Every structure is written in C-alpha cells, then in structure tokens.
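Note to self: the last two entries modelled the partners one at a time, which told us nothing about the interface. This time every component goes in together.
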Amino acid sequence: MASKRLIDQMTAILGPEGVISEREQLRSYECDGLMNYRVVPDLVVLPETAEQVQKIVKLCHDEGIPFVARGSGTGLSGGALPVEAGVLIVLSRMRRILEVDIPNQRVVVEPGVINIWVSQAIADEGYYYAPDPASQIISSIGGNLAENSGGVHCLKYGFTTNHVVGAEVVLPDGSVVDIGGGKAPDAPGYELLGAFVGSEGTLGIATKITLRVVRKPEAVSTLLAAFKDTEEAGDAVSGIIGSGIVPAAIEMMDALCIEAVETAVHPGFPEAGAILIVELDGPQAEVETQFQQTIEICEEAGASEIRIAEDDAERALFWKGRKAAFAAMGRISNDYYVQDSVVPRTELGAVLKRISEIGREAGMRVANVFHAGDGNLHPLVLYDNDVPGEAEKAEDVAGEIVLICLEHGGSLTGEHGIGKDKMKYMPKMFTTDDLNVMQLLRCAFDPHHLCNPGKIFPTPRLCGERPGPFRMHPVQKAGLAENF
Amino acid sequence: MDNRNDSLDPRQSGNPYDAMDATERRTDPSTAQDQAGAQAVGAGSPQDLPDDTFASRGAVRQTVGIGRSTETGSYVFPAFDDHHPPEKDLIDDCVHCGFCLPTCPTYVLFGEEMDSPRGRIYLMNKALTEEPMNDQMVRHWDLCLGCMACVTACPSGVQYDKLIEATRGQIERRYQRSPQDRAFREMIFQLFPYPNRLRLAAAPLKLYQRFGIGDRLRKAGVMDMLPKRLKAMEALMPMLTEQQEVPEVTAPVGEKRRRVGFIKGCVQRVFFSDVNSATVRVLAAEGCEVVAPKGQGCCGALSVHAGREEEFQRFARNLIDEFEDQGLDNIIINAAGCGSTLKEYGYLLRDDAEYAERASAFAAKVRDVTEFIQELGPVAERHPLPVSAAYHDACHLGHSQGIRRQPRQTLKQIPGMEVREIKEAELCCGSAGIYNMVEPEPATELGDRKAKNVLNTGARMVVTSNPGCMLQIQASLKRMGESMPMAHPMEVLDASIRGEPVETLLRQ
Amino acid sequence: MDTRTQNVSLEDLQNIVGEQHAREAAAEDAIDGVEPRFVAEPGSVEETSALLKLADGAGLAVAPRGGRTMLHLGNPPRELDLVVSTARMDEVIEHVPGDQVVRVQAGMRLGELQERLAGSNQMIGVDPPEERAGATIGGVVAANSSGPRRYRYGTVRDLIIGITVVLADGTVAKAGGKVVKNVAGYDLAKLFTGSLGTLGVIASANFRLHPLPEAAQTVTVELADTAAAGQAAQAVLHSQLVPSAVELDWGEDARLLTLLIEGVAPAVEAQAEMASFLLKGFGEVRVLSDEEAENLGPLEPAGGSAGADEVTVKISAPLAELTGVLDSTWGACSRRGVTPRATGQAGIGVTYVSLSGGDEEAKVQVVEELREIWVRRGGSVVVREAPAAFKRRVEVWGPVGTRLELTRRVKEKFDPRGILNPGRFVGGI
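The predicted structure of the combined assembly is written out below.
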C-alpha cells in the first residue's frame, strides 16, 4: 500500500480524481490483457497532461519508486503488469488528438488516443493510419508505440515503428526530450526513436506522439479462400508472395479458429480446414491485375471456394471475423494461452506440422490464426483453468512451440512483445552478450531501473554508479539482481 | 475510523443530492490501508473487526455467506451470497481483451478501469470469491447505465446483461444505501411504474409548462438551487399533450392477418400517448386486430434494471396474467426498454414454478413493433414523406435486442425518407432507464455528446424507439439552445400511411 | 604520433588479421585531412572483435570504413589512429528468396548485392547514389544513406531487420533476427542506423527485400516557379498515385518535378497517364527516356566534377514546405553571390543543395541562415560535404535539441572510452 505521504504528493499533482488508492479499485488494474500474471499496484495515477506525467515520474525518480505505464490494458505479454510497491501510470485520460496536419501527412496525438480514432479523424480527408492491430478499436497509440504493434496490414505498410515519426518522451529521471524528427525527416543524431518504439515501456513514457498517415488507396480488393488444410493454404501463400505480389494483408485461420469465430461474430465463413483472407490495395490497374493472379494461384493450390468481398460491408465482415479471433476463443474454451512466434515464411509448413503434433501428443487443442504473409503465428493453446494442471500443461505446450519456432530461425514474438510472459525464453534467442548490450541502452535511458522493471530481460543488468546518496536499488532489495 | 463514517460516502455529507462524478469517488486514503491491515492479520470472522473496517456499513445487513479461505490462509467474506449471484461461468467467459471499453459510456467519460464492463466484471469476480461488498464497488456498479453496448462489442459473448442484473439484485438485498438515496430511488419506483400516479404527478406540470414557469425560473437562476437530481428530473420533463387512450380492441383494416396484444408502457402511456395511438393505427392498417388489456400495468423493466427482484416479479406475473388467455399471435411493444425485459421473462422468472413456463411462452411472442412489421411484411400503402431523419439506436433495442436493421428498413420503406446515421451510434445517450435521474452528471455529459452528434447529421428530425432517449436528447438539445423535431418510428410510419404532410411531423 | 599508438605496433595488428591485411596508413587514408597511423582489414567478426579490444585497451581512436564513399560526412575527426576496413567481410551469409530476406556482411558492396538479388527478382529498397561509387552495406547503414525510392520503401531503418555489431570493447552482439516481423528485445539495428560508426562496428546486417518491379516509367513536369513546385508536390502527395520516387531538380537550367512510377505494366501505364493528367496543370509534362531517368537522385558524391570548394547541405523540412525551402535557399544565396543547385526527395521533405561560387565566408553565412530558419521550423540543415576548413568553422550537424544529453549517455554506455570516431558525430561525440 502506498504511504499517505506519497498519496498526498500525487494528489497535489493530480487532484483527488487522478489518484486511486483503494484496494479493490487497485485490483482492477492488477493485470492487462494477459491474465496469467497479477500484481496489485501500490497506487494508480491517471494524469491528464504531459506536465502531470513529468511530475509523477520525477516524484517516482526522486523517491526511488518503480513505475509502469499503461494505456488501455490490452497487451498480451503482461507489458503493463504493475510492479510490486510501484505506481501504475494510466494514460487513458490523455486522449486528445492534438493536431491534424494533412498537408504534412502528420497527426499529433496524446498517448491514450485509441488507434482507430486516428483513422476516423482523417477519414474525410481520404487518409488513414496504417498500423491496425486486431485490438485497434481499443488499444492506445501509446501502447502501440511501446509494443511496436503490427496488425494485419503491416505486411505491406510496416509496423508502428514505420509510422511513428516523433515523440515527446518523459525519461525515467523526469526530464523531457523530443526524439525523432516529427514533421521533418532525418533528424540528426542517433535513431533514438527507432530504439524507443517497441521498448515495451522500459525506456520512458511518450506523452506526445507524431504519426505519419497515409493516403487511402485507390482500390481495395479482398478475397476469402477455403482450403482443405493449412498446408494447402500455405502453398497458396508461397505462390502469391513468390509471384512478386505484395498483398496488403494475407491471413490464415485453421478449422478450430473458424469454428470459434463463426460462433462469435457470424461472418459466414465456409467450413474448411483452413481459410485465407487476402487483401490487395493500391492503384486500380495494379490491384485488378494482381487480384486475378491471386485468384488463379489460390485455385491452383486447391481452393475449394473463393469469395470476393463485393463491397465495404462484406470486406468489414471478413475482417471482423479475423480480428475477433482471439477473443472468440472464449466461445469454445474457457481459457487459452496465446503465442506470438514468428518463423521464416518458407518454414511455415514444417512448423505448423510440428505444432499439431505437439498438441496431439499433449492432448491439447491448438487453434491457429496467423499473419501468413510474414510468418507470424498465433497458436492458441486451449485449456480449462478449472482442471488442475491444465494451465501448466498449456504453458508447456506453448513453450515447446516457441522453441520449435526458434529452431527454425524465427523469433519469440512478432507483435505482442516479450513483457513478463516471454522473458524466460529470451536467453534461447539471444546470447548473454546480446542481452547485456541491449541493456546498455536501457542504462542510458533508465540508470536506476525504475521504468517498468522486471520486463523483457530475465536478468536485469544494473547500471553501475549512480549519482547522489547510495540507495539500495529496489530490484536489488527484492533480491532480483546483483550490481555488476 | 470515525472519519470514514463522516466522509467516505459523498452521499453522507452536505447536500445529499450532490453530484457523484469521478471527482468525488475518492475516499480517505487511510481506509484502504485499514482494510489491508485487517486482512493481513488474517481476521477470521466479521466479529473480529469493526464493521466498517471490513465491509461497508451496509453490506452486512443480511448474513454474509460463508467465509472462504484464500491462498494466504485468511478468511474473507465475499460480497455476494448464494441467491443468484452473477454466475461464475458467465464471469469466466470474459477473457479481459478490453474490446468493450470504447463502447462503454462511463469508460468514455472517466477513463477508469473500474468504470468499464471489463473492470466491473473483474470486480464481480472479486466480490464473488474474496472481496467484501463496499461503497466503492457498489458505486462502480451503480454507475453502469445498463446500455449493453458491451454485449454488442464483446467477441467472447459475455452475457453482461445477466451479470449486472444479478449484481444489482445482490446490491438491492445486501447493501444499505443512504437514507436520501433510498428515498429518492423509492420515489421513482413509486411513481414511474404506475401510469395513474405518473399522470397525477404530471398534471401540475402541464400548467407549469403552459405558462412557461420553468423557463422563467431557469432564467432567474431558481432552478440552480434545486438539488441536482430533482433538477435533472425537471429538465427531462417533456411538454405534455392531451392523453389519448388506446381502445381495448381495435379492428384490423381489411383482412385480419394477425391478432396481437399491445403493451402500452408506463412513460409511453403518460408522456407519449400519441406514439401508442400511432402504433395501434399502424398495426391495424397492416391487418392486425390489436388487443390492449385494460388491466395491464408496468412490465417491470425499471425494477429489474435496478435489482428490485420481488417488485419485478409482481409486475411480470400481473402482465402475463393479463395477456396469456387472449389468444394472441404476438405481443407488441413499442418501447425499447420494456421490450428487452419482456423478452427475458422466461429467464427472469426461471425460479417461479408456477410461472416459469408461462413466462417463456409469453416472451417468445414478444416483438418490437418494427421487428414485427418487417417480419409480417408491410401491406399498407406508404405515402411520401420527403424529409431527412437521424435515426438513434436505443440501447435496449440495438444492443439488448440486436434490432438495428428493422427500424431503419421501416423508415426507408417510406418514399422520400432519407435516414442518416449518427456518429458514435453505439454510445448511450445517457437516459438508460432511471439513470439520468439518479446519476445526472454523467448522464448529462452523455446526453450533450449525443445531441451534438445528432445535430452534426444535419437531419431535419430525430427518430428513435425509446421514450427515455427522446426525453434525454430533447433535454440536451434544449440546454444547448437547440431544438429538433422528434418522433417514434411509428409516428413517422403512421403519418406516411395516413398521407399526412411532412410538416405534421416537423411540428412535433 | 602521440603516445597512444606507441603502445600498439603494426605487428600487433597483423597478429590479429594476418600480415597482408594490416599496414601503415597512407595519405589517401586521411579523413578530412587527419591521417591515421594504421589500416587493418579484419576478415571475420572475431578478428574485428580482437582488433577493437586491442584498440580499446590502448585507447586508439578508430574509424570504421566501408566503401569510402561517405567519409566526408561528419565533423573532422578529433583523433584518428586506426582505420578498420570491412572490405574483406563481403559475403552474403544467407538469402532465401521465398522469405524475401537477406543476411549480408558489412563489407559487401550494395551494388553487387543488388545484382545478385536481381537474379531472384528481388532487391533491397535502398538506392543511394553512393551505390554507384561502391558503397558497402555497413557504410550505407552507418551513414543512413538513402535515395529517390525512399518515397516508396522508406530508409534503412525501415528495411533493416537484424544486425551484428562489435562494440568498442570487443563485445559481439546481435539484435533482431531474420524475420521481418519481430519485436523481441530492443531494436539495436535501428539505433546503429546513422550512428556513423560511433557506437560500434557493424559486422553484418539483415534486410527485408522487395520484388523487383517489372516495369517503370518516368514522368516529369517543368515548373514555372517555386510556388508551382510546392503545389505540384502537394498535388502528387494527396493523390492516389503511388510513385516510387518524387524527385526535385532545381537550378539555373532545370525546374523539374519528376515521378518514377514502377510496378506491373498495366498499372504503370495507367498511373503514368494519371500523373500526366494531374501535373499538366502545373507546367509542361514529358515522359522521360530511360537515359534521362537515370539522372534522378541527389547530387553525385564528391570527387568528380564538383569544385574542390563546393559545399553540399541537406535540408530536412516538413514536406509541405518545399516552396519555402527553395525560396529561403535562393534568397540566402543570391544576397551573398553563392550559386545554389537543389535536388532531393520532394515527397519526403529532403532537399540537397550544393553551393558553389562565392567565398567561404559567404557559404558559411548561407548555411547559418538556412539552419536558423529550418531548425526553428522543426527541421535540420546538415553539411554533407565540404572542405575540412569549412567544416572547422561550421559544425556539420547543427543542434540536436533536448536529446543531446540522452545522446551522450547512449554513447558513453556503448563506447565508454570514446575510441570510435571521436568528434565526428553530433554534439562533438
């Protein structure tokens, strides 16, 4: 529990409405989108301005109190999991779109702004914000930035990191810096913004974010193709990419996933072993040519049915089905454990086969929904928390899947982040030196290890000498790390 | 400790009707510490602790269920007892994805987890398993408008409607509200479900309105001196028109296609009797014999939304009695809020051996009037009404009943009618049953937001299916110095079938 | 030389990289007139690591070097003892066409790599003009070089997906991987992009690839004045055209805005037609021959025909301010008898200006005036190329604002003894 003194100090910064210190209220913040880990924060604060964030962080820094930033709390790796004896800084009230600058193709927002609001704000101008994580109706731009969120359309348009061009950041010592060029490109100096985006809230808190927005394409065509199994669908994916087409999106769902989605949002998907949703966008003539090619490739790969979205409404329905996939698992299973590993596209077939074998051996159902174009898998291991031991078993299966993906030259995570959830696998992907060098960056930003500690790195590295009187570092105090 | 009794609940101090917005949902910080302290020492029974350390003053009115042991070995006494608590299975459907947050009006307003469906469900889980009931919890549940936008948004199919209703039942039985709060709520429930009382209460309003007393008082600032909740009620009162009674039986025009029952509603009957008359005329025009039993009372929707279980059951049984022997094909309702509850009768009376089956049979016949007309297929000739109308989805029609297409279709079938969509259509207008009377401030914010979006459509009029929404949007428009003609889809359709000029609608 | 290098002999270096791969430096190895003492060419990551460890221990100032095409970028070195050339590390480590990813050693020449990738109908979407002069992958990453096609494909930071670096103390570390989508750990590949060898030596890098476009057309419009240039660029940006490049060419003899349109043949045809239609309101439109189209892009790197005292600056500005960039440049130059010539990516907000004529003082004033204007408006003016004497008068990068302190901290963590390219980066780093 937070001390009365800290509560008073925070109240002085935020007013009583910005400070939450009641136990059961704090408990509703004890986890984010990932419920496997729960930590009740000492205090939750809800700033409304960048100045307040700066003051909160400064106060935490001066008092040696660790803090964690949280947006909408939809993250799937526990990135916004509070830290014990720490302050949770919730940015959901910083939700103003500060500037829409169409001539410069920029929108400036506060971190709590919901992803889709950006596109809504500029739709009338013929523009949109390209990164579209499945959670785009609720996830915040600040959270997207922290996680370097992807989305179904990032195959062609890139990830959050390719669309954030500037940020005002409150560093863990309470100082404020502008990184990235913002409206002008190529700011001299280190590419700090590129390192900051995707740092999972461990390097500071962005309080003002400049986004690059893009012109809506002239034409969009979407099809849905049904296949006998994921292997056939995988052949189609290879065929499309191999032909030189860069689809805006290419997504795959397996039978189990189709079943769940159909129950949840009734998109009218055909019964199949696997379906692909392929979307092409761009100049009319290009889309027409390549769409025809895509249809042919799908047919050659053995598609039993191909549906073409006749209008925006039908296209929206296809995507609604896809984007609701995770949450829809609630319809067929009480609990699920989601993975986010990535494999080189050419390894997809082999990896999918191994995954189904692993599931079968363990007697667990594994549903697959994934970004086929970039090899980003989302195996969902279904289990029932009320059956003793199932949760552990599910985690084991998920862990095995991760290791398989690494063996095939992949990555632990494509878009959900390492957070708390995948920390323990980091040494499987990186050497100690790799991790130590990454932490050099952290030490430059956060020498006292106060900003979202205990995430990403399984062994926190402390940053040597610290100015001011000696204080035992909280991580040290908790026995989590030694000074080295 | 004393300090907690004095200041914990804003309702206990100063003006009892003072606003309870986010800024006042704070408590003395020491309380949280006290509670934690108590749990840390592993207090074993409620007697071990002073009442107010452990749970709120009100929570221990009835026996507190059985203590459950926690991981730490201490015993806690959860907020809910075993009489229809929110079902654990339904709670477990929530995967914490947060997709409900942006559609939740209170999350939109306050940006706090506890004031979102996800947060409320999380609290329910805690209340079910470990946490005692206290003022904060109740406050966050009270603030829910019950608009069910989250039900629409939820990809996991969480039945939040059932969860919140069960929660409200628990609150009603197990939580002691402040005397003022209780009195106000009681006043509402002694008034609104009873058309005769409502009519009597409304009569003086007619004079008051006719002579513009309200406007004068408002200008003079006198209104500002009224408690906020009463002010909220005053602002919502519509201009009253002369009562039109719906006959007990209305013959169909032409060949009889269906024999239907008609539920007159409470607020609808008193404040919007025109809507009822129009509905009956439309139904008759579409070939229905319309039966409106004289003895019918309230459907109990307001009660069930407020967790007043027994009161609801009384109303529901009465209504079933009135309608079930009439040989009806369908039972028609034109108020969204009533409709959603009527359709749930089977579930809501599931424990009632005598009525359970009859309630299900009744519920199966219930149709919203637009739903019914589209199901039946329109036959009456529609005359042109060249006008643009913004259609507002009442939450209890769109979110609770999933009826969005039918009212639009009903309007679009009228030649010349242009239906415009309202931005943030999924967001509640703040009316939400009695919400705008018990929680005036968030309701007002939502109402103004809705009114702005309505104005931005540039339409000539607003059409919506719920009396509460009409009152709410009208009040907001008035506050903004704007006005816009409003109508129920049945009034519009009635005007079209009768071939009235569009001006008739725009005069309303 | 000074005492540092006395601790290290050529033999020490040769022991690491082999006798024939380390030598005493020659005059041609000088950077901005500062001569190193040794040049070493490691053949592997291990050798690079050993070299740096040695240098770090002895406190030798090290300059990593690739194809020597961008050595003019940056402030003159504060110190320089050892050049570490990546020339021998020039292999493609892995290229799986189906994955559209390549892993390549830093010393590989970009041009050669592009040729090899073209065999699979693929390319890296980076086309800096230095490519023709033999720029290496490591150099392109370190200097963050870009060319016309950045309009479509972005810059190195958008295409690099993994990196292996050797830090000053010899630590070898990697980040990212060989999959396009990957958020595991910090994105050090981006951090090293444009770091000009001040954080470590880049040993290899991984990139995402794009398919080679099957057809191309170039449409150009001749404009009357700078206002028309700004308007034409805006018209293109806000249209649904998807060109690969939107290039400006502005000087005594040219006032052109040029669109490079690439893709499948029918689409290129249709887009070129749309572009012509869109642009004809701004001036005379022509569809260029392939040869003319070759001349797209920023100024040729120095060493060619450019005068020895020529100064090239890069102006970064909000992209809607193209007219202002041109007007301010011509204004500043004409008052001081300096002749400007501008090229650049009009669709991005990058303009390269070469300044000729006038004396050094005049050019110094032009740069200072432009910098004053464009830094205030959120942009930057970087001196890309200039005689060493000029660079000693004008700090080449300009101010970096509030992030200077943080930038220094990053440098201190990665290179605590400051041996890598001392003095050449922003803020004297």
